[in-house]
Amino acid sequence: MIAGKKGRLKLKTAIYARKSREDITELSLTTQIEECRTFIENYNSLIDGESISVFSEDNASGMYTEYRDELQKLLREVKSGNIDVIVVSKSDRFSRDSANMALLIQELDLNQAYLIALDDMGDDSAAGVLIKQIFWATNEFHVRRSAEDVMKVHTKLVQDGYTVGGPGNFGYDVINRKYVINAEEALAVNLVFDLFIAGKSYSEIADELDLKGYKPRKSSRFSPSTILSILTNKRNCGISIWNSHEKRKERKRVIRELFPEVISEDVVVEAIVSKERFDFVQKLLKDRAIGKKNEGKSSYLLTGLIKCATCNGSITGNTQKSGRNKQTYRTYHCKNHSKKHGATCATKDVRVEYLESYILDQITYILNDRLNKTGFEQEIINKYLENESHMLTRLKRDRTKYQDLLSKMTIGLYQATSEAVFCSTQLEIEKTDRLIQLTEERISKIEDKIGQIDATVTTVTTKKLRVEDIFINDEVSKRIIRQFISQITLSNQDIIIDWI
After folding, report:
1. 125 falls within a domain
2. What separation in angstroms does the CA of 387 have from each of 275, 277, 355?
3. What confidence tens digit (pLDDT) does each residue in 103-158 have?
4. Does 400 map to a domain?
5. Please, are residues 194 and 281 in contact by the beta-carbon 8 Å criterion?
6. β-strands 53-58, 114-117: how paired?
7. Cα separation of 381 and 67, whole Å?
8. Which range marks the domain in which residue 107 is found?
9. Rg (CA), the chain
């Protein structure tokens, strides 16, 4: 009938096969395709068996249509009139969602095409259509129930203090369903936190990691997204969140029931960084969005803070070259002062060096005044030193463990009875030796940091802090400025600072 309508002797046919992760016990793609070919051969008087198109996709969920590239390609061929019949081994290969199945069948009807499912038990009568719809709904039910069962099992596992599977994030290995610190990766994680707190960019952090020989698990170099993931993963401070609603993607879900987040500190055996340090970095990440540094361009420390007293407009940084020698001038200017925007504001440009120097001097004066009167808040210092001391103790314990292991492996190396054992032991010795070296570097760095803090606490009341002691780079300077100032109002006569 379809062939007659389209003026063809035989129908142009396509085979569609699909397999997804939930189809563990289902037929392989190859088997599905072979079953369809056998059917086509049995009906070669109606179907053109010499021009069969095959569309197949692996790891594709049948609950959706928009994420299946091969299905979309097939539907475009149907719409173009190049396909008359689609053959599938089972109806759930075409769709597992009853609503989507009905829409797909409707689309085929509109384009005078037909679906043949080898497990189809009904016809186009009222009873046959009902049977098909029940069959489709049953397929959907099995998928949704299976997904709900998995979620219930995973929820219970995490509540009991176990992981739900997977290799673990960078910094941890999964051993006996617990997140256990990977010694070398943990050193890299700590370095990432150190460098970020010091104001380094993601690119600079990646360079330092590369220089020290640290590599991510699946590539040769740390990317900005990988570094950000390390900085924001709460598991690094000992808190594991499963089924995080915050990170859930905005897309259709197989599961209609909303399962709760499960927050557990029992899944992680030991934290890599302290909770205080992790929270401090999260605050820095929020502040980082203000006045981002553009590579190759001038950095303006006060961007977003300055308002014009005359027109209440924003005052922004501007770089221009002027004069016979094309000298570069950096200024903060109100755009309404320029001819381009009508020259409606009288507030003149201010040199960046003058305004920023004035602001930094003011903050330095306030800091020195506070420190000379009250000194450091000893409780904060003690808390910081407590975290560093805890880390130092753990690293020294690890170093002793690695040194003992190295000693045993060295003895085993000379007692090896085969070349294979000798080579494998030698590789482990090299790996452990590198781990000892990295651990010692980390220990030395922490000891130096503790020493610097002690020295600063001792001398701050007798020796004033200088601007260069506080504002060590642009990133740190921006952070500090925003801890003290909420707004700067600028006019031709005055600079008004709103202190926090």
Report:
1. yes
2. 9, 9, 38
3. 999 999 999 998 999 988 767 778 877 888 888 888 888 888 888 888 888 888 88
4. yes
5. no
6. unpaired
7. 53
8. 2-143
9. 33
